[in-house]
Structures are given as structure tokens and as C-alpha cells.
UniProtKB/TrEMBL annotation:
GO terms for molecular function: glycosyltransferase activity. The keyword Transferase applies. Coiled coil: none annotated. Pfam families: tRNA-synt_His (PF13393). InterPro entries: aa-tRNA-synth_II/BPL/LPL, HisRS-like_core, HisRS/HisZ. Keywords: Glycosyltransferase, Transferase. It comes from Pseudohalocynthiibacter aestuariivivens. Residues 9-200, 239-355 form the Class II Histidinyl-tRNA synthetase (HisRS)-like catalytic core domain. This is ATP phosphoribosyltransferase regulatory subunit. The keyword GTP-binding does not apply. PANTHER family: HISTIDINE--TRNA LIGASE, MITOCHONDRIAL-RELATED (PTHR43707:SF1), HISTIDYL-TRNA SYNTHETASE (PTHR43707).
Length: 368
């Protein structure tokens, strides 16, 4: 295992590569306000982050990554266009996998540029491809924007589409919702029981019968939730044809050019993805200009669905061939919507990624 000194030296080497390309080095506080992250990700973030309480500052989190504080910094005071690089520790709880570290280094490169998003995507990917090239890693790409566009185009209620969009980053939950909304699975027994009780009782009576309130929800919030359940029970299932098309997109794994042709065909039946497919085409052209061999580049439509929830377009990762025990050596993607949330209405197209220097050092050691 590499020492902290070795990790810092490797991190500085990687940062120097990005600085040579025009990136400005920046830093971020180790303690981050918890309310910002909770607003972004909901209570789920507590399962992945270390939370502490400060008597003056309130709840704080050991930074789970750099992207959020870097975006906040840029939206508050950054010039345009901008390129940043950074390095330091991040902290993630690993309750389900004790083999993985809960504290590790990240080195990142972020681009904020509204002129040509496709070119920025290609720039970031090419930078990571170049600095990691001695390791002979497998590159994989995807596009969360295509999945989001497909969901938004479904012929169903806005509430159901919002639920699916909220769980795109939780594949099992997304699948369960899609199967339920598509009529392919039964309602949970508890849901059926509640709906049955609502047939014979008013919402007010049901709340009263269940006794004193326990938990954080008020009676008004409970009533709103019960009304939502009643309304949703009357909605027709999503059409089988639409569910099949979405299934096909989710399972798509091909070389990038073949995936593009496949998605163009799908767009005939699901025109809501047309703009996202056009952006993918532009990105591949920009990558080719940067010297990336897109003919053999892997594309997986579901790629990136288990990372933090701010990616909303192009996503990528670099992994060690024959080492399924290792997490990605590097990963990143586009997060335009995050800049709007943290910019309080202002936004700018943004894309970036991170490298784990301890994994780079480990793989370099195996190739000596």
C-alpha cells in the first residue's frame, strides 16, 4: 500500500498535467455544510457520508467529493470559461464493502464552458485518456441524458415521470417502479391494504384511526401522500411498447458508432430522445478530432447509474482490465443541472472527472 507521501506526490503529478493544460488549481474545505448535500441528494446521502454536528455551523459532512464545492465556488465568483484542478482526500462510508477504503485521494479536472459542450466533453475525456494511457485501461462511456429524455417522453403522468427520474441512479428501485407503472408487477401488499381502507374511509378518518402521529411527517403531509396514492391508482399503465423501448435503451451495450445508429432507430419511435442522440453524435465527432478511436469505444446506455446523482449527460469511466475487484481508476461526466441548482437559477454547461491516485500507483507497480 502506498504511503501518504507517495499518494500526495502522485496527486501532484496528475495535477501538474492538468495545470499544464490550462487548469487553475483550487482547494475545498474538508468540512462541508450538510444542508447543501441533503438538498441535492435527500436523506440517502447520510448512508454514504460522515455527518457531524457543530454548535455554530449546524450539521457538517466530511466532503464526499469535490464537485459540489467547486461548482459553488465557480457559480459565486468564477470567470467564463474556466478550467480547474484539485487534489485531496474524500470520505465515503463503505458499510456494504469492507474491502474498499472509506478515505482516499481524488485528483480532478473540471471545465465550465458554454461555447461548445460537445468539444468540452471530448476535451475532458481525451485528457483522462492521455494521462492514464500507460496503464492500458478499459474506457467505457454512456449518456444519462438519453435515459432522462426517454423517461420525459413517456405517455404517463408527470408525477410518475418525476418518480422514475428521481431513481435513475438507483437501478433496482427504477426497475421496480417501471414494472409497476407498466403493469408488469403487482402493487405492494401494504399499498393494496391502504387503498382498500381508503375505499371505505375518508383520509381524515384513516389518519385518526391510526392513532397519534409518530415520526417527522405532519398530518397534512400524510394526507397529501394518501391523496397521491389514490390518484395514482386510477392512472392507466404505461404502454407495453414504450416500456419495451425503454428496456431496449437500458440494455444497450455496443461500440459507440453502433450504439448511435441503434439510438437513431429508436428515436423514430421515441422522438423525445432525438436531441440527446444528436448531442451524442456531435460528441463522437469531437472525440475523433481529439484523436480518440471512437470506432472501438464502448458505450453502455446504463453506464454511470450508481454514482452520485448529479450527472445528467455524457458519463465515462476508466477501469483496469481483468481487475473486477477494483473500483474505476477514473470517472466523470456532465452535470449541467447541478450548476443551475447551486447557481440559484444561473447555470453554465459543465463537465469533469476524477482520478484515484492510489489505484494508479498500484497498477503502475504491477506493470514494472
Amino acid at each position: 500500500m502506498a504511503s501518504k507521501a507517495d499518494l500526495r506526490a502522485e496527486a501532484q503529478r496528475l495535477m501538474a498535467f492538468f495545470e499544464a493544460a490550462g487548469a487553475t488549481p483550487v482547494e475545498a474545505d474538508i468540512l462541508q455544510p450538510a444542508d447543501t448535500l441533503l438538498d441535492l441528494y435527500g436523506e440517502d446521502i447520510r448512508a454514504r457520508a460522515y455527518v457531524t454536528s457543530d454548535p455554530l455551523r449546524g450539521e457538517q459532512m466530511l466532503r464526499p467529493d469535490f464537485t459540489v464545492p467547486v461548482v459553488q465556488m465557480h457559480m459565486a465568483e468564477g470567470a467564463e470559461p474556466a478550467r480547474y484542478t484539485y487534489a485531496g482526500e474524500v470520505f465515503r462510508r463503505q458499510e456494504e464493502d469492507t474491502e474498499r477504503s472509506n478515505e482516499y485521494f481524488q485528483v480532478g479536472y473540471e471545465v465550465f464552458d458554454r461555447e461548445n459542450p460537445a468539444a468540452a466533453d471530448a476535451e475532458v475525456f481525451a485528457m483522462f485518456d492521455s494521462v492514464l494511457s500507460p496503464l492500458n485501461l478499459r474506457a467505457a462511456t454512456g449518456d444519462i441524458g438519453i435515459l432522462m429524455a426517454a423517461v420525459r417522453g413517456l405517455l404517463t403522468t408527470e408525477r410518475r415521470k418525476e418518480a422514475l427520474l428521481r431513481h435513475i441512479w438507483r437501478p433496482r428501485r427504477f426497475r421496480a417502479l417501471l414494472d409497476r407503472f407498466g403493469g408488469r408487477s403487482k402493487l405492494p401488499a401494504a399499498r393494496i391494504k391502504i387503498l382498500k381502507r381508503l375505499e371505505d374511509n375518508s383520509i381524515e378518518q384513516l389518519i385518526e384511526d391510526d392513532g397519534p402521529l409518530i415520526g417527522l411527517r405532519s398530518s397534512v403531509e400524510i394526507a397529501e401522500r394518501l391523496n397521491t396514492l389514490k390518484d395514482d391508482a386510477t392512472v392507466e399503465p404505461i404502454g407495453a411498447g414504450e416500456v419495451e423501448v425503454l428496456d431496449h435503451i437500458l440494455s444497450l451495450r455496443e461500440t459507440a458508432p453502433n450504439a448511435l445508429e441503434n439510438l437513431r432507430d429508436i428515436a423514430v419511435d421515441m422522438p423525445s430522445i432525438s436531441d440527446a442522440v444528436r448531442k451524442m453524435d456531435q460528441r463522437l465527432e469531437a472525440m475523433a478530432v481529439r484523436g480518440i478511436n471512437v470506432e472501438t469505444l464502448d458505450f453502455e446506455a446504463s453506464h454511470g447509474r450508481t454514482t452520485l446523482e448529479y450527472y445528467d449527460g455524457f458519463v465515462f469511466s476508466f477501469s483496469a482490465v481483468g481487475r473486477p475487484d477494483l473500483p474505476p481508476i477514473a470517472m466523470g461526466g456532465r452535470y449541467d443541472a447541478l450548476t443551475k441548482v447551486l447557481g440559484k437559477g444561473r447555470s453554465i454547461p459543465a463537465v469533469g472527472g476524477v482520478i484515484r491516485p492510489e489505484l494508479v500507483l498500484g497498477l503502475e507497480g504491477t506493470q514494472e
